[in-house]
Amino acid sequence: MKKSAFVILIFIGFLSVTINAQETIWLNKDLKKTTKNNALYYKIGKKTEGEVSYFYKNKSIFKKYFLIAGKAEGKYAEYYDSGELKVAGKYKNDVKDGNWKVYYKTGKIKKKGRYNKGDKVGIWKVFYKND
């Protein structure tokens, strides 16, 4: 009896590992699927719900955002390969919406403005790098 329970437990363990194991998808500069040798970025799995993260080949985060029913929704963040925040904004129904900021590597704001349903609106301010 104990032996059969152990075999079932091992089978369930292998099954859960198989289900949770996800494919690494290698991506080129246009975020199109490519080979590992030609890739600049990668992502794990093909999510259509929840947080999606892309990574530089050096394993640091490239960008992350949220998907609901396969569409970008909510916070969006993009990073320099050294880890500093590069772009921050929000998506609504798969288009840029609301306030967006672009940063220099130093963390200072490079430009900021507003999107409405994917279109730039109003005045966009540009800040020059003063080193």
Protein architecture, described:
The protein is mostly beta strands and 131 residues long. The protein has a single domain, classed as Histone H3 K4-specific methyltransferase SET7/9 N-terminal domain (Single Sheet), CATH 2.20.110. It is built from 1 helix and 10 strands; from the N terminus they run H-E-E-E-E-E-E-E-E-E-E. Strands 1, 2, 3, 4, 5, 6, 7, 8, 9 and 10 form a 10-stranded antiparallel beta sheet that branches. Strand 4 and strand 5 form a beta hairpin. The longest helix has 19 residues. It is globular. The termini are far apart. 5% of the residues are buried. About 6% of the residues have low confidence.
SSE blueprint:
Elements: H1 2-20, E1 24-27, E2 41-44, E3 50-56, E4 61-68, E5 71-79, E6 85-92, E7 95-96, E8 98-103, E9 109-116, E10 119-126
Antiparallel strand pairs: 1-2, 2-3, 3-4, 4-5, 5-6, 6-7, 6-8, 8-9, 9-10
Descriptive tags:
131 residues, mainly beta, Histone H3 K4-specific methyltransferase SET7/9 N-terminal domain, 10 strands, 49% strand, globular
| Reported CATH architecture | Single Sheet
What characterizes the major β-sheet? 10 strands, antiparallel
End-to-end Cα distance, whole Å, is 73 Å
Radius of gyration: 20 Å
Number of continuous helical runs: 1
Instruction: Name the overall outline.
Output: globular
CATH class group: Mainly Beta
In brief:
The chain has 131 residues and is mainly beta. The chain is 15% helix and 49% strand. The protein has a single domain (24-126), classed as Histone H3 K4-specific methyltransferase SET7/9 N-terminal domain (Single Sheet).
